[in-house]
Amino acid sequence: xxxxxxxxxxxxxxxxxxxxxxxxxxxxxxxxxxxxxxxxxxxxxxxxxxxxxxxxxxxxxxxxxxxxxxxxxxxxxxxxxxxxxxxxxxxxxxxxxxxxxxxxxxxxxxxxxxxxxxxxxxxxxxxxxxxxxxxxxxxxxxxxxxxxxxxxxxxxxxxxxxxxxxxxxxxxxxxxxxxxxxxxxxxxxxxxxxxxxxxxxxxxxxxxxxxxxxxxxxxxxxxxxxxxxxxxxxxxxxxxxxxxxxxxxxxxxxxxxxxxxxxxxxxxxxxxxxxxxxxxxxxxxxxxxxxxxxxxxxxxxxxxxxxxxxxxxxxxxxxxxxxxxxxxxxxxxxxxxxxxxxxxxxxxxxxxxxxxxxxxxxxxxxxxxxxxxxxxxxxxxxxxxxxxxxxxxxxxxxxxxxxxxxxxxxxxxxxxxxxxxxxxxxxxxxxxxxxxxxxxxxxxxxxx
Length: 448
Ligand SMILES: Cc1cc2nc3c(=O)[nH]c(=O)nc-3n(C[C@H](O)[C@H](O)[C@H](O)COP(=O)(O)OP(=O)(O)OC[C@H]3O[C@@H](n4cnc5c(N)ncnc54)[C@H](O)[C@@H]3O)c2cc1C
Prior knowledge:
Helix content is 31%, strand content 22%.
């Protein structure tokens, strides 16, 4: 099978590897100058900067499988045990560390001691956790509900939702906690909190994402005999007369037996050949919308944070990561922190100077050492369409990999993976697309 994969993010890289590994003739076309999609890095005056800090969880089996295939497992270490320090202005600190008990008991001791909730609020935390066990994320009715309403109905007051549930749901689903789809929140809670005790252990890359995914993906694909063309923007996909497809680029075209369309949803819609899916299905993708993530990068003349990352409450700061080593920074004694702001609608267009006015004092409220430190550099990266808006109703708009046209399949973290728009979702979608194509080899005129 001659397969063309359009889009070189994690979904496209995964699909291309899966097809090339089974002996198919694969070409991967990526519009940008490099692979990796939303997980990318750039160089800024000798610093390697990720446009957006990424983390993953112990339960991200498909993503971890890809890391393994890329030879990158050692460069993306996972905590021995889920362990998150939560800071609030004024010096109050909590440590949410799981025990070795089997899930879901593994988190109970930490939650029982969580100092940002009253005793009564802590006692009520187990109510939604228990009710969640009986919730089916795949049921259409679950997708129509707001996570915040469901939590409130299960005894979680405003304080519990902001000081505990938001900590994880906002960053996992990139939408204000109350507004998230209950279905997607349930996937996160059921897998991470109620599943195996190591499911929520946090993994953070020790290399820039561009190296971890994009460069490693290009190297492996070359080894497998696949062709990778960057700077190749596909402008149309057309069914060819004798079967198969014409994949049209600005400066030429390719023919293929099969196409994996692995681009973001708003880019996929205009590339769909007529009749590949009902027009209302394709138009429905527009309803998935987009939600921004903003990263605020701050370099200090001295260390101010002594942990690899922390979360914050009662502060505009959400999560802070120490990027000093990963960025390759060569400024003795300095520390480079990145604040990751999810559901960042209010910051997407805020001028850098205003963000600096807000976030430098906010960091000083969390880290006493920052009060005396000098900020030597401050910059901001904004991903306005970081993920789709993971709101109620979004599940019904996400298509499966298969289309009505044999040999044309969809991939991307926005497709119907059952997972939120994450690296795990992207890799799962790439695997599903490749499996769908392999299963339909005879239908598309290729002997099995
Ligand atoms: C700032 C930020 C932080 C995030 N944090 C996390 C996190 O902590 N954990 C997590 O799991 N996930 C996180 N995510 C989400 C995760 O990055 C995405 O879900 C995942 O990378 C999407 O992969 P994808 O392959 O589906 O799409 P993309 O990465 O968007 O790849 C699609 C590719 O298609 C290419 N393309 C588009 N149009 C064309 C065309 N016409 N022709 C050829 N190529 C085209 C694009 O250039 C792009 O490279 C974050 C995302 C962002 C932006």
